[in-house]
Amino acid sequence: MAKAEDFTKYVSDMMAAFPVDTTAMQDAFKSSAALGEKMSKVALDAADKSTEISTKWTKETIAKLGDVTAVKSEPTDYSKAMTDFASAQAEMAAENMAAFAEVAKKVQMETVELMLAAGKEVQEETTAAVKKATAEATSAAKKVAAAK
């Protein structure tokens, strides 16, 4: 029976013949992780603010609802309580929607700033990598030319 050949040595030799500089990959990973951390912070801050707004709105609604459910001496007082509640809800809705809009606006601005900064950083890293590769290729070409 034929024995299966172990290609581990061949692959190791081949990889050694083509050395790869992994610092670029490590730097890219670090940059990506840092961007992810910053984006997560923006999202978590927005979630925190949104939760605060929702909680405040809920507490105010419950407080106003207490007035509606209280016993009234006149039947017309019930309709007045409902009208007051509806009016207060409309006002609270407008205020809270504006607050949510502010949170969204802040998230949008921070996200754009982060993306622009990341784009600039990637452009600078790419330029540096291209310059380095060009210098190495030029150096190798000069060595080959000098050897002839």
Walk me through what this model shows.
There is one protein chain. The chain is mainly α. The protein has a domain at 42-113. Helices cover 88% and strands 0% of the residues. Helix 2 (23-69) packs antiparallel against helix 3. The protein is elongated and about 110 Å long. The two termini are 50 Å apart. The mean pLDDT is 86.
Secondary structure: elements and pairs:
Layout: H1 8-17, H2 23-69, H3 75-147
Helix pairs in contact: 2-3
Parts with pLDDT < 50 across at least 5 consecutive residues: none
Radius of gyration: 32 Å
Shape: elongated
Helix content: over 70%
Task: Tell me, rounded to a whole number, the average pLDDT.
Answer: 86
Number of strands: 0
**First-residue to last-residue Cα separation:** 50 Å
The helix tally amounts to 3
Beta content:
under 5%
Oligomer: single chain
Content-based structural category: mainly alpha
SSE order, one letter for each helix or strand: HHH
For the largest beta-sheet, the strand count, sense and barrel status come to: none
Q: Which descriptors apply to this entry?
A:
elongated; single chain; 3 helices; 0% strand; mainly alpha; 148 residues
Characterize this entry briefly.
The chain has 148 residues and is an all-alpha fold.
